[in-house]
Each structure stands twice: as structure tokens, then as C-alpha cells.
Amino acid sequence: MAVKTKKDTIESYKVHETDTGSCQVQIALLTDRINQLVDHLKSHKKDHHSRRGLLILVGRRRKLMAYFQKQDEPEFKALAKKLKLKVKD
Description:
- With about 90 residues, the chain is mainly α.
- The protein has four helices and no strands.
- The chain has one domain (about 5-10, about 20-85): CATH 1.10.287.10.
């Protein structure tokens, strides 16, 4: 599996031409990092330091998603579907 670069992720999820920090981009970047850490932890089960980092990233993404859901519900649902995230309705 090829690892997407940060620039590719930003290009995929940006809202306007110079966008690098909107909620959509931040959530997508965090999701990529989380997926990489999950793959790492599958083969390194005793790496508790990385597991702690994963939990911190998941919490950060959850807070961003809650904020984005309050701001723009339809756009949030579209992003969650695109990223294949489980979301409470």
C-alpha cells in the first residue's frame, strides 16, 4: 500500500485554493496519521508509547469532528462518508 503524502491529502480535501488548515483538511490529515499508527501497532503490539500517541490523535480528531458537525452538518456527513468514518447520528 502506497503512503499518501501530506500534500496529496491537503489537495484532496481543501475547501479553497490556499486552504491548508480548515476542519476538513485537519480531520483528513489526522485520519491518515491514525491509520498509519494502527498499521504500525498491528505488527508492534507492545509499543505503548505509540499507542498513547494514537489515543491522543483520536481524541484530537474527535473534538475537531464534533466542532465541524455543529458548524456544518451536511458537509460533515459528506466528509465522514468520504473518509469512511463511523459517526453517531
